[in-house]
Amino acid sequence: MSETKPSGERTLFRLGALVGLILLVLAAADLLRGTGGRVWLSGVAVAEETGTREAAVSKSTLFRNVRVFDGDAVVESTQVLVQEGKITAIGGEIEAPPTAEVIDGAGFTLLPGLIDSHVHVFGPVLKAALIMGVSTELDMFTLPDAAAALKAEQERGEGLDRADLFSAGYLVTSPGGHGTEYGFEVPTLTTPEQADAFVQARVDEGSDYIKIVLDDGSLGRSFNTLDLPTIQAVIEAAHRRGKLAVVHVARQQ
């Protein structure tokens, strides 16, 4: 039987356990700060001026009288202290460090950055996502060169005005399959014997996981699709490399 943590302790645990948690103040708080209605993220204003993540995480911020949602429960009014990019205290009366920015959060809400687990990253969508409180995007098919450039900036601590990106790069599909209809060339495969080299090419391009398509277009446009032995070979090749394999499946019921 699992131990039940007290409500306040559980809230602190859930918030503190989120690696790289970005606190979102809802757009109304933005208006209060005179930033034109854009969602405000702790430390982002400093980072935008300097272009470094270090500037953002060195900032201390104390939120007073703020509602907190941790993904499970709501605490109606509490204090939250963020130091060096991490939550260090929550609840009760917290004394602000001398250099901390103090924000009155009365009537506003803090919550963990959201994760969108199926997107396609083209254009300014990462910036738009962060404005809406989505701090991580799991891309399921985009051009690998573009994804690699964005992730390289991310690793350097740049691009703090957009959501973090993880990407499949090219999807795994057959000639004439779903994913080939968008006007640019994508690699394809047809047999299980091609799977190992195909997956290795995706890993070399920087794919964080492998996205496979099983879709004959039964919901609309007709497509070719991979057969099950080829899909199985792709999954095994991905797992041998320590990569998660995910499958897009569409079928008319």
Structure description:
With 253 residues, this protein is α/β, with parallel strands linked by helices. Helices cover 28% and strands 25% of the residues. It is built from 8 helices and 12 strands. The strands form 3 sheets. Strands 1, 2, 3, 4, 5, 6 and 7 form a 7-stranded mixed beta sheet that branches. Strand 4 (74-83) and strand 5 (86-90) form a beta hairpin. Helix 7 (195-205) crosses helix 8. The longest helix is centred in the C-terminal third of the chain and has 13 residues, at 228-240.
Spell out the key features of this protein:
253 residues; alpha/beta; 7-stranded mixed sheet; 3-stranded parallel sheet; 12 strands; 25% strand
